[in-house]
Design goal:
Elements lengths: L2 E6 L4 H11 L7 E7 L4 E7 L2 H7 L2 H4 L3 E7 L14 E2 L6 E5 L5 H10 L9 H15 L8 H10 L6 E6 L7 E6 L4 E4 L4 E4 L11 E4 L4 E5 L4 E5 L4 E2 L4 E2 L15 H7 L1 H9 L19 H6 L2 E6 L1 H17 L4 E5 H7 L7 E7 L5 H12 L3 E6 L5 H5 L2 E4 L12 H20 L4 H22 L2 H11 L4 E6 L3 H16 L2 E6 L17 E5 L5 H12 L5 E6 L11 E5 L7 H19 L18
Parallel strand pairs: 16-17, 16-18, 18-19, 19-20, 21-22, 21-23, 23-24, 24-25
Antiparallel strand pairs: 1-4, 1-10, 2-3, 2-4, 5-6, 6-7, 7-8, 8-12, 9-10, 9-11, 11-15, 12-13, 13-14
Helix pairs in contact: 4-5, 5-6, 8-14, 8-15, 10-14, 10-17, 11-12, 14-15, 15-19, 16-19, 17-19
The protein binds 2-deoxy-2-amino glucitol-6-phosphate.
2-deoxy-2-amino glucitol-6-phosphate binds next to helix 10.
């Protein structure tokens, strides 16, 4: 999704914004640009491609300047071109703007503005908003009673249908920077003699740790030494300053080749951090500080609805199996994008849980708001402190997995399913789960970091297997019960970074269609664990082998896989049922990573994808 960095204050606007855009590259984009006051008015520079292209175009004065706005664009309206890149400047030259979001009524705006003599250089919705602000600015009285620039932004936003996070400048007001948000995140950075705007806190932590998270329909007016926040309808808002405990080293690669690789290998630590301080003294259950629901209220819950997108949705599917198995509470899982428009009937004792690594996914946010509108209690399992989803849910559980930069989610996924396992344990121990069963689960969870380290030692072996399978254009991932969501996750990992067409299915579903795909050119990855489905999983493997399909089998060590049955075997340590999804995820992450490398794909910035999907 688009990235925004705005700056006002000292003579370093261009360089601060450039650093900020580089820190936002992981979000996914296709062009970038900035407007900077470099002494003689504003200068606008825009380039397609990577931020380095913009950097190469900047001259010394443009790295300075005391005011500027900048942007990385993930195309929604209009193709990838310099004209469509942001910032946009109004045809009268009075307003420049960068925008993240989707303006749904921009065509009507363009028709109205064209009738007023405004012209358009791009196909974007953002340029329509830019000209609309210029129109209102032109109409504003310049009698000094009100700031016409601020009033023009405020009045224009009242006509917008859709979502926006914007930063705006006006050459007539070289001491003013204005930002606003509705549906797309925007954060204010508070520095010494300088202020910043950003769509993501990671873009500005090199300048300040003090931030204010704007809420929807808020407008912030920044000068170098002060700022004020008000609503679009002019009601003033008191700023709440948060201190970001961001460890800037997290946003650096260190000794790794890619962020995805780094984050796969960080999982022993991220799992440890997510569990820290969350087990009871008697070692038989877990607890969370921020649920804002006491045991009595939790015992009234008779259904849990999980909402998410993508990998987080796979976490919800794991949660369904675990909570129904260990807490005996019925669970439903919905794609957030579907739930928000489905008007599903829910009974009043339903708890709604949103899972989101970024805490800004617009469909998950929309579904959460829909659930709140209907009066349901909401929780968020989230990896981004201060994110919109975290702030708008009634309670929540932070993952503490550390920042996840790679577009393909890895440590956030295993952290989410670990949190869901702990939630299942906690809810189960409020109901029928025995002390002994609880102690076994806590012990299994505590062993996870060491067991993950053991699996990571197979990196080279898994890389060798990946090399053999990187040539295929199709691949099936198959698993039963708790391994079905992991099969889906394996398929998503492989498709999103290697562009192989991969699909995940419950293994038993093979005979209902997918087996037609099996041939020498369509390998299968089977996720096999011991227990009641083991023999049936083996039967499914044999059905594939009988049709010349190649098979990679990822299995727990206590599975007796007959010699010669499969083409490759990757084993994970024997473990408690509740942690199998986590351990079995590690090999599929490494497999997809190495296949993508072998195919020369951009692992951390896969084509067309963004780290946080903040537009519908
Ligand atoms: C996962 O590898 C993808 N990057 C994507 O599916 C992601 O999980 C999804 O967009 C949800 O993001 P969130 O967890 O930040 O809400």
């Amino acid at each position: 999704m688009c990235g925004i960095v705005g700056y006002i204050g000292l003579d370093r606007a261009g360089s601060v914004m450039l650093d900020g855009l580089k820190r936002l590259e992981y979000r996914g984009y296709d062009s970038s640009g900035m407007v900077v006051s470099a002494g003689k008015g504003f200068e606008q520079i825009k380039r397609t491609g990577r931020v380095v292209k913009l950097e190469e175009s900047l001259k010394e004065p443009q790295l300075g300047g005391n005011l500027g706005i900048s942007h990385t664009r993930w195309a929604t309206h209009g193709d990838v071109s310099e004209a469509n890149a942001h910032p946009h400047t109004s045809s009268d030259g009075k307003i420049s703007l960068v925008h993240n979001g989707v303006i749904e009524n921009y065509n009507g705006m363009k028709d109205f503005l064209a009738g007023k003599g405004y012209t358009f250089q791009s196909e974007t919705d953002s340029e329509a908003l830019c000209n609309l602000i210029a129109y209102h600015y032109d109409k504003e009285p310049k009698d000094g009673k009100k700031n016409p620039f601020h009033e023009a932004v405020r009045k224009s936003l009242r006509h917008v249908e859709g979502t926006y996070g914007i930063a705006v400048v006006c050459p007539d007001f070289p001491e003013d920077l204005i930002g606003a948000r509705k549906g797309s995140p925007l954060i204010v950075g508070i520095g010494k003699g300088e202020h910043l705007l950003a769509s993501d806190v990671s873009a500005i932590t090199h300048c300040t740790q003090n931030v204010v998270y704007l809420d929807d329909n808020e407008v912030v007016h920044l000068k170098k030494d002060n700022f004020s926040i008000s609503t679009v309808s002019s009601k003033s808002v008191e700023a709440v300053i948060h201190k970001v405990d961001w460890d800037t080293s997290e946003a650096e690669l260190g000794d790794y080749d890619h962020f995805m690789q780094k984050e796969i290998f960080e999982q022993p630590t991220s799992l440890e951090n997510g569990m820290r301080g969350r087990f009871s003294d008697d070692g038989s259950t877990a607890f969370f500080g921020g649920l804002n629901l006491n045991p009595q209220e939790l015992c009234q819950i008779d259904r849990i609805l999980f909402l998410a997108c993508g990998t987080a949705w796979h976490s919800c599917l794991v949660a369904e199996y675990l909570i129904e198995r260990f807490a005996r509470i019925p669970v439903e899982v919905e794609y957030a994008s579907e739930f928000r428009y489905r008007n599903a009937p829910l009974d009043k004792n339903t708890l709604v849980v949103a899972i989101s690594q970024s805490g800004e996914t617009i469909d998950t946010l929309g579904a959460l708001r829909e659930a709140k509108r209907k009066g349901f209690r909401t929780l968020a399992i989230n990896n981004s402190v201060g994110s919109t989803i975290a702030r708008e849910s009634d309670g929540g559980i932070y993952q503490h997995a550390g920042s996840e930069i790679g577009v393909a989610s890895t440590k956030a996924f295993t952290s989410q399913i670990m949190i869901c396992a702990m939630l299942a344990l906690y809810l189960g121990r409020l109901r029928d789960l025995s002390y002994g069963d609880g102690v076994q689960i806590v012990n299994a969870l505590k062993k996870l970091p060491e067991q993950v380290k053991e699996i990571l030692k197979q990196n080279d072996k898994i890389a060798a297997v990946a090399k053999k399978f990187a040539k295929y254009e199709d691949c099936l991932f198959l698993g039963r019960q708790l391994m079905f969501p992991i099969a889906l996750e394996g398929a998503l990992k492989l498709k999103e970074i290697s562009y192989i067409h991969a699909e995940g299915y419950p293994a038993a579903e093979m005979k209902h269609g997918p087996i037609a795909l099996i041939c020498e050119d369509c390998p299968s990855v089977f996720l096999v664990t011991s227990g009641e489905t083991f023999s049936k999983s083996l039967a499914n493997v044999q059905e594939v082998k009988a049709r010349k399909g190649k098979v990679i089998c990822i299995a727990t060590e206590d599975c007796d896989i007959p010699d010669g049955l499969v083409d490759e075997t990757i084993l994970v340590p024997e473990c408690h049922e509740i942690v199998k999804p986590i351990l079995m995820s590690i090999p599929i992450q490494l497999f997809s990573y190495h296949v993508a490398l072998e195919r020369g794909c951009d692992v951390d910035k896969p084509r067309n994808l963004a780290k946080s999907v903040t537009v519908e």
